[in-house]
Amino acid sequence: MKIEKSIRFLMDFFLCVSAASAKFRLLPSLLLMRFFSSLVFLLAIASFTVAQTGPPLKIDRKSLVSRHDVINTRFDTLGSVSVGNGEFAFTVDATGLQTFPDYYKDAVPLGTQSQWGWHAVPNPANYKLSEVYNTIDQHGRKVPYTFSIKGAGRQEAVSNYFRENPHRLHLGMIGFDLKKADGSAVKMTDLRSIRQTLDLWKGEIRSHFEVDNQPVDVVTICHPSQDMVAVQVRSPLVSTGQLQVTLRFPYGATDWEGIPDFSKPTRHTTRLRPTTANAVVMERQLDTTRYTAALAWIGKATVREVKAHEFALTPDKSATTFSFTCRFTSGPTPAKTGQATFATTQQANQTHWYSFWTTGGAVDLSGSTDPRAKELERRIVLSQYLTKIQCSGSIPPQETGLTYNSWYGKPHLEMHWWHAAHFPLWNRPALLEKSLGWYNVARPGAADLAQRQGFNGVRWQKMVDEVGNESPSPIGPFLIWQQPHFIYFAELSYRNRHDQKTLNAYKDLVFATADFMASYAWLDPQKGKYILGKGMIPAQERFKYASTYNPPFELAYWWWGLTTAQQWRERLGMPRNAEWDKVLAGLSPFPAQDGLYLAAESAPDSYTNPEFMTDHPAVLGAYGYMPKTPSLDVPTMNRTFDKIMTVWNWESTWGWDYPLVAMTAARLGKPDKAIDALLMPVTKNTFLHNGHNYQRNNLRIYLPGNGGLLTAVAMMCAGWDNGPGTLSPGFPKNGKWVVRWENLAKMP
Asked: What is the mean pLDDT of residues 118-140?
């Protein structure tokens, strides 16, 4: 800033002298020389400063990515690795296939999942979701919410049915059937010399192991645009007949995490249909769900039915190498024959991943001396890979992506921001935009929900199925912080593209989202202010819906969302919406007490009640996740941050809380605290060997933690609107951090 002022002073001085010289036809040569030398010097400094807001040297991206390849030398229940494309993912054990699934079922399971693969058990009792609508009093109106009801006979059964159904389906288990030379089955403990590499740069898994001192080498890849896994096997065991591939198909599982159910063979059908000499189709039907698995191979092989829903692919003994592909397709129509081979899939996959790694953002911390830098860089690289294959599909992802089920496989829309908001910040906007069209699919249900409750526009649901149907819950229906997400997504897309096409693509949903927000805010006639709540639960899910109102994060998000929606109207040449402006002008200020922001205006005991110092420290989101809004007082937020860092029960927090804290620390000018938050040594901030964010015994991976990390790091590198404008403002300037980055965008 001082340099810019000096340059402006010299330029103004030069103009004055030029005017004088024009009048008197005189300019002393010495003065002229000194002027230009000073100007050149300052311009050089300014150029250097500007250059340093980006990377000073081009990053060797292949080296950056490849030094974090995942390498397994044993069977590790938390170390399974996946290939995928955002619509489909396939997770394997150390053999490169799903050979020993039982060993992994209580850790990071070996799943085969897609965005379209859903199943519901029959509903002979004709349960209806409307049976669990329960009304609450909300500012003098009876408003129906979709409750999860316990201990109430039929209503409990209805609640359970619609929470469990539909559920995401495990499409099929593909593994090796290995035999020793004596014909006995190979056990997991019989494998030797295990070495498996997840090659991030190529997006493929290479697995090596030995059976009876004979090597087996496997390459596993996913087609970049089809729901297909492709596998190549090289081993003497092929020619001795000791190796074949098995395919097993389970029934849909209604338990919380969807463990594949092989115990109900009579509840579903699998019909084998040969199509060519080198291909078969397995036609699947589970109640009303139908799909196919098309298996194709190169060379001679046979496929036979071992028993119901289990098939064996046996390669001919004439070679030591064979390859196959298995493509899963939704619907009753059999998959087309002539599908891509392993070789063509491998080439397409490598091209795809080369483009991914070379065109998006990159962060290189290798020059840093802080001992935590290597681990942070590892998390950054692996999180890019994992969110690409798990969170970039056409439907908002579930919290465990396409690896295995959590909450019955259903997406949580308040988590969509943490899964995917980073994509535009890392110069990959298309990976977010793939799922934005889904909101049009969910819109009828969201509009019906808003209308049923007496509000305008669309009220975005919380826990949903693949088409946006709401699930019963004691908490979810009362959350509101997912509501402005769509406006945030649309704005990120526009900031990246700055075109009329983007405005036209998303304007209707932006405006309908804002219409609900304005109508949801209630004008308190006594205070003359608009209130959020009662009848809501904030992002910090520790408060009762009946009494909670005005949490600061939601207030900030409401103000930002409505303001941004108005900007969209102005960009489109439309007048401002008068109702939105009323709410903006009268929105309640952030509640504060004793110089600290409260978790909610209804919670004056925010820092004395132990329960209220657990779960998400969401109050920090009012300045971190959110930019500065009119209600924010920075010194008050500073004190609030310091208080939370001192008193919070961090073991009760979740994987996205640490990026949340880091973003607030960065905006407050506390970059050392931002790093501390990202690498806080607590259980739910554990990043496993394979890059997944571990949470607890029944939630071993948690992709919002990965996506949140990438969002925070992009912000810490590229900064934010009206930020300090310094190089990587979210990283400490203590000489221990050398941060090089490319192709990152500022946060709002």
From this structure: 96
